[in-house]
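Title: Comparing notes on inverse folding

I've been comparing how different people in this forum approach sequence design from structure. To keep things fair, I'm posting one structure and asking everyone to reply with a full sequence. Here's the target:
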């Protein structure tokens, strides 16, 4: 028999012996990430942006650590992030707050983001620190890269959109509008295409109205990833408007920036057909010496059963095409005393057959049934296109195409695990900040997963 127990009312102890370190599990995500979150350079990086006098500010390293928690753990609200850090022991430990450390107010993030963080480009510096650590941990092969872009919804109400050809209303104002006006000539945003968007969002004009997915059209930005295909480490990230031309331009900026910042120059680049236009292939092959493992963007195939361009053989020595009937197509059928450029404004040269040859040809109905003579368009960058076609027949191409799916897996992880399927910040700079922080979180989680704790500690 036992007598009824009585709950002992809690009494405040005079002293506690409590070590936060002992209450964070060894395999907790924040403990694993902490090994690679090197933020020692943050203060020196921001020093020129602080005054030598006045009231001490909140430690910028604390703010960055809290943002890393938010993006690593999918906490999208900064108000909620402050609450979670206040209550969660592991988060307090990661932020070096102890039990009695004060958590900053959520408004502090906005003040620093729009000020010192952007002026100093701090978030890119933090991201590049994770890339250098990945290189030091031998997670970057540096031979094969992959590139792709993904649409991220903008923080815009599509019901309040205005027709694009009418432009912004006169009363449109705000930080996002100012950033839009500043990027009208930027190749990543306003200068990427002369096409007027169907709709414009007054609250975030740089967001592009797109119907690129099967779902209903929406306003979006594009996040562009350049990754190393060995372990899917994100080497660079860039925010652009949601059009293909801007994404191709971002790919060039990222390739050059990775070489400049880290001294890494890929031998191969895998991408989808959106990056397979002739000028981009020529840039990769002729200007950067990179093998394009990219499907060629080509519209020369025909669906009516007539001969396609691939049925014609190009004679480099004599600059002509040879048709299936063994007749020639030339870029010029006449001799002129004045030299004229045969290249049109789109970078193509027209090769034409002789009407006399086509009139009596037995293959006329299979070649050019509706025109007097056959014509073929050839890009001035056809050499790079031919190289891409030849590479498509190799085993290395098949491997690169399979590994390229790692970029898509990173985007799926970004949206489903990190919860970045919709932006919280507005404007090009807001998208830039969010994409950099998300890529930083993904690289940190990658190292936490792939590098055993003992190996990492020994390396340190």
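Reply #1:
Here's my take.
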């Amino acid at each position: 028999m036992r007598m009824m127990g009585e709950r002992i009312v809690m009494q405040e102890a005079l002293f506690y012996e409590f070590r936060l370190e002992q209450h964070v599990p060894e395999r907790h995500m924040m403990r694993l990430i902490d090994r690679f979150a090197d933020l020692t350079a943050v203060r020196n990086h921001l020093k020129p942006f602080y005054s030598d006098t006045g009231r001490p500010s909140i430690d910028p390293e604390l703010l960055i650590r809290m943002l890393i928690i938010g993006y690593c753990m999918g906490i999208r609200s900064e108000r909620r992030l402050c609450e979670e850090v206040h209550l969660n022991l592991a988060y307090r430990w990661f932020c070096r707050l102890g039990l009695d450390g004060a958590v900053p107010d959520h408004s502090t993030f906005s003040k620093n983001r729009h000020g010192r963080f952007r002026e100093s480009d701090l978030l890119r510096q933090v991201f590049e620190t994770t890339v250098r650590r990945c290189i030091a941990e031998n997670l970057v092969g540096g031979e094969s890269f992959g590139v792709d872009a993904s649409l991220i919804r903008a923080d815009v109400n599509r019901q309040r959109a205005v027709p694009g050809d009418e432009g912004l209303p006169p009363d449109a104002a705000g930080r996002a509008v100012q950033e839009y006006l500043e990027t009208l000539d930027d190749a990543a945003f306003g200068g990427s295409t002369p096409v007027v968007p169907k709709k414009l969002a007054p609250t975030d004009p740089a967001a592009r109205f797109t119907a690129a997915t099967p779902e209903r059209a929406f306003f979006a930005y594009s996040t562009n990833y350049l990754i190393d295909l060995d372990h899917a480490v994100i080497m660079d990230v860039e925010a652009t408007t949601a059009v293909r031309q801007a994404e191709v331009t971002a790919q060039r900026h990222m390739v050059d920036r990775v070489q400049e910042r880290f001294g890494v120059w890929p031998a191969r680049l895998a991408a989808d057909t959106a990056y397979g236009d002739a000028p981009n292939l020529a840039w990769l092959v002729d200007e950067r010496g990179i093998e394009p493992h990219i499907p060629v963007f080509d519209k020369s195939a025909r669906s009516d059963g007539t001969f396609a361009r691939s049925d014609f053989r190009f004679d480099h020595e004599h600059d002509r095409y040879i048709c299936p009937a063994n007749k020639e197509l030339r870029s010029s059928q006449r001799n002129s005393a004045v030299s004229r450029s045969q290249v049109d404004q789109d970078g193509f040269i027209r090769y034409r057959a002789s009407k006399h040859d086509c009139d009596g040809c037995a293959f006329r109905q299979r070649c050019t049934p509706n025109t007097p003579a056959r014509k073929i368009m050839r890009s001035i960058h056809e050499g790079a296109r031919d190289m891409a076609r030849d590479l498509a027949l190799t085993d290395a191409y098949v491997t690169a195409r399979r590994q390229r799916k790692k970029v898509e897996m990173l985007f799926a992880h970004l949206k489903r695990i990190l919860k970045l399927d919709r932006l919280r910040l507005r404007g090009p700079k807001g998208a830039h900040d969010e994409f950099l922080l998300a890529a930083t979180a993904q690289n940190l989680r990658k190292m936490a997963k792939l590098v055993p704790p003992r190996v990492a500690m020994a390396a340190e």
